[in-house]
Amino acid sequence: MFVATALLYPCALVALCLGAGLAVDRLSGAFLPGCLLVSVGAAALIALSQLSTYIYPLAPATPYLMLALALAGAALGWGRAGSLARSCARHPWPVLVSVLAYAIALAPVLAAGRPSFSSYMALADSAVHMLGADFLIRHGQHYAHLDLHNSYGQFTRDYYGMSYPSGADTLFGGSAFLLGLPLIWAFQPFNAFMLATAAGPAWALARHMRLKGAWAALAVLTAVVPALVYAYELLASVKEITAMSMLLTLGALVVAHRRWLGPAPARAIPFALVLAAGVSALGLAFVAWALAAVIVLVAALARELPARRSLASVGVAALTLLVAAWPTWRDLPGALRVARVIASTTNSGNLHAPLRAVQALGVWLRGSYKLAPAGAALTATHALIAIALVAAVLGGVYLLRIRAFALAGWFALMLLASLVVSRSVTTWAEAKTLVLSSPVAVLLAWAGVAALLSARRALLARGLAAVLALALAGGVLASDALLYHTSDLAPTARYQELATLDSRFAGKGPALFTDFDEYSLYELRELDIGGPDFVYPPPALAGAAGGYGEPVDLDRVAPASLRAYPLIVTRRDPAASRPPAAYRLLWQGSYYQVWGRRPGAPPASAHVALTGTPTQQCARIGAFARSAGEPDDELIGAQAPLLVRVSLARAVHPARWGHEREGLVMSTPGSLSASVLLPSAGVWDVWVQGQIMPSVGLSVDGRALASIAGQLDGNSLVPDTVPPIPARLTAGTHRLSLTRHGFTLAPGDGGQAVLDAIFLTPAHVDPQGSLHVAAAGDWPSLCGRSYQWVELVRSIGPRT
């Protein structure tokens, strides 16, 4: 799967986009530069997939329609494709820099050597895009049949049914479906590919600045992976990454306007397609950025073309724009509402404070774009930003001196748009504004390098240009390396288990999902799941969690409220309370358990969670039986498993390790050592809870048991439970150690390492938990044990 998603999938995307680009090129008069064919082809495929999913009976055919367009383009442009191949062989820089941009964008996944994605523990927005891409290709833009009682239906309706931009999602879904790839593993490669498509138009802009060869390649690479863009690509911000490629393509078409503006109206089609794709991917907010290109073109039209030709070109462009982005224009009020909500939201997402405007210059020497660099890194960051600013000013003067007025005007208007938009939106949208403006700012700084290379004193100028290029490229790549090192990758094995679970129980939902993990909306899409701690919880069960992202506690809800759920999916965690007695265990994996409601089993009439000692619980059971039931009613108690907890408060660990809520932050290499007293000999399961991305070694009495890495849950509020690690131990005291190893170059080595709990259970513990039954009038027979909860029921079927 890793080879298919990380290596074969981008090759298929190149073929699809190149074929579609050749089709557009042939349709518009064969004028497009080779470096724009892939991005223009992506725009055409976005338009096609938007229209096919809008006509929702055609939605499942979207992958094959995309393939048909690509094949038609290959057939029509076969001669052009051959000349492109020969040109690439003679001048490989554009291809090499695109491949390198893809490799950098996907570096954490490539280095891990397993299918994954890097937006984990940061934002769950990518879960929505996976869900949406799958839904749109299977069902199209048709939402009337959704069940709004559960999270799956609410998420789909409240995003995509309310005019949320879906252009990137339909391209993603259609291309991944064509190869039969799981969207969860294809998502990060798709984002990396869309970032790499920006290298083509960036190359055209760099060449227009008179940069050549390795100089142009370095400028392009730096422009498409500046620190802020790279950070958002790791977050899988697919809308912004796709829009960035479209914006740079508009800029490249602007500077080449003499090749297409006027000679034949059909030559305006690529520009209109790219504009439509940007609107479909980002929403109407894209128009604010596209105005920079439009204004420059209007000025060129007024200066260079007669009115008749101008009107013809404008007419063709307008018609193409109308058709290609028809789903957006069809519900223009809804699209405007979405744009206003995003621009004015007071929810800053994962941003604790607004980003700094200077981050758009591509340098940020900190492993997080949300935090300011410190110490020497702060000094170096300020110095590199100052150099980039001076270079940008020099570059602006240079563009005017060489009379590159169209390019200079586009740069100026793009930066002006960034300033205007950032002043009129709130924190969340302002950050995205900086992301979109960052490639422009970095390219303008590289115009400063071009200025030095063009100076008369060639030797001195080239030396200064080399120093400036080293500062610009070195600052960006060093910033990216720090972000790579702190990236948190999604746990592959756990999601593979969810996919197995989904296929095993497909169509047997709805299912209640008690773990906080919104990626389950895609992975369990055949179960119509509801998550009480999701953004959109099932209305009847919202009280099962304390709020968004909080742990789910089924003891908080009346058992009758669960009647609508034939299945309950829980994490495998003996410290958690088991579902009510009406449910029996159907399936257990390394990470999850699936509980099914027994046919005909009545819900309990009352349910109470128990804590304290067995003596305290006995008194509580008696009071419960007398107040809630009749003597002939049945009491059912779920016996608590034996848990031997390791006291982290008494453990020895480095003083540098701090705390995050209840967890211990293993922020630097070092070891935790704690003693644990076992009451009996035998095989014990060691359970570790926390968010652990870097490699951490577990040992008992100096004997290594396991290495734990890449074990993360979807939210730091809900500790991840690592699958049990068995160990044969004697009765008595043992010394348990957990060691975070030293610095490595592995992705995520600087990521999350938070320990919440360690406990042990006998390995033979029944995963269903022992249920004990007594008549309400005979409640004392339940005493003497420790229980998770007790229920009162009128009758109960056979328990197997």
**Tally of DSSP helical segments:** 26
Indicate how many domains the architecture comprises: 3
How many β strands by DSSP?
20
Q: Briefly note the structural class of the backbone.
A: alpha+beta
First and last CA, distance:
38 Å
Overall pLDDT score = 90
Low-pLDDT ranges = 796-800
Largest sheet composition: 7 strands, antiparallel
Shape: globular
Query: Helix fraction?
Result: 40-55%
Radius of gyration: 30 Å
Fraction in beta strands = 5-15%
Overview of the molecule:
With about 800 residues, the protein is α+β, with helices and mostly antiparallel strands. The chain folds into three domains: about 475 residues, no CATH class; about 70 residues; about 110 residues, Jelly Rolls (Sandwich), CATH 2.60.120. It is about 50% helix and about 15% strand. It is built from 26 helices and 20 strands. The strands form four sheets. Strands 8, 9, 10, 12, 15, 16 and 18 form a seven-stranded antiparallel beta sheet that branches. α2 runs antiparallel to α3, α7 packs across α8 and α12 runs antiparallel to α22.
Task: Describe the SSE topology.
Blueprint lengths: L1 H26 L9 H18 L7 H15 L1 H13 L2 H13 L1 H6 L12 H15 L11 H9 L7 H13 L3 H15 L1 H10 L4 H12 L2 H8 L3 H18 L13 H14 L2 H20 L2 H18 L1 H5 L1 H13 L31 H26 L3 H20 L2 H27 L4 H28 L6 H13 L6 E3 L6 H4 L5 E2 L36 E5 L11 E6 L3 E6 L8 E4 L4 H15 L5 E6 L4 E2 L12 E3 L2 E3 L4 E9 L3 E11 L3 E5 L2 E6 L11 E2 L3 E5 L2 E9 L12 E10 L8 E5 L11 E7 L7
